[in-house]
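User: Quick sanity check before I run a bigger batch. Here is a single chain. Can you write out its predicted 3D structure?
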Amino acid sequence: MTTLQFPKAQIAKLLQDAKKGDRPVEELRRDLGCSTASFYARKKKYGDANVNEARNPRQLEKENARLPQIVGQQRLEIDAMKD
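Assistant: Done. Predicted structure follows.
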């Protein structure tokens, strides 16, 4: 038995639609083609993440690693401007 893999953005959109409550969860789940257990497992995993937050965690880790470097460079520039 094969498992279908959906893009994280599509899963996040489905969870946001379910949160709005316009359509029942069963209908949304049927549109995506997943089981009830899969839906709730994804809901538990992604929680309230929006489409942008559902990006690859490694990509977010790279961005977070660069932030201290950027702050350090700005601090050096500010110190140089004061002198």
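The first helix runs from residue 8 to 20.

User: Great, the batch can go ahead then.
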